[in-house]
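stage 2 :: seqdesign
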């Protein structure tokens, strides 16, 4: 079996995808997102039609406010990611290398100045969860500490990565998202 390794950059777009994943984290996070958005849309439509039929403009205003708040939420998430990426530009511009083994993995941040490079060995026992989402692998070391590994940076196919992790990572720690 090929070893599982990843090398490349994590872009602000990857962090944005992570933030959206983290909101509804779990195996079916994309279905949860669709359900929430459809529920909000149906609520707004119902309020708008109710206001239209009863002549009560307050319902229509409330529907507009709900839609505006939903749009502002997603906008603020994007702005927060951009601000955080700008604040941590040095880390964002560092190349990330992750090499998995039988008992855990090695995580490295490679900076232009080699003296600043960071190196960590992490055992699977220390990992809280590993989520295999469609575009990336999210490795939670703690509830608030995550390593984002975009699948485009993998040196093997996503299917081979899944096979590797299923073989070596404890089952209760691996979640394959659909």
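stage 2 :: out
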């Amino acid at each position: 079996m090929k070893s599982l390794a990843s090398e490349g950059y994590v872009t602000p777009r990857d962090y944005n995808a992570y933030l959206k994943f983290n909101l509804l984290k779990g195996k079916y996070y994309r279905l949860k997102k669709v359900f929430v958005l459809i529920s909000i849309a149906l609520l707004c439509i119902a309020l708008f039609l109710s206001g239209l039929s009863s002549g009560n403009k307050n319902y229509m205003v409330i529907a507009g406010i709900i839609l505006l708040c939903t749009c502002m939420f997603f906008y603020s998430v994007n702005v927060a990611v951009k601000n955080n990426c700008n604040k941590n530009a040095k880390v964002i511009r560092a190349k990330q290398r992750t090499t998995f083994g039988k008992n855990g993995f090695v995580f490295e941040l490679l900076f232009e100045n080699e003296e600043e490079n960071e190196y960590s060995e992490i055992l699977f026992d220390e990992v809280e969860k590993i989520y295999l989402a469609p575009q990336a692998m999210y490795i939670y070391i703690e509830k608030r500490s995550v390593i984002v590994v975009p699948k485009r940076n993998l040196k093997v196919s996503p299917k081979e990565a899944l096979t590797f992790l299923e073989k070596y990572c404890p089952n209760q720690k691996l979640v394959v998202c659909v």
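stage 3 :: structure notes
- Residues 57-87 form the longest helix (31 residues).
- Strands lie at 5-8, 95-100, 104-110, 118-123, 129-132, 136-142, 145-150, 174-176.
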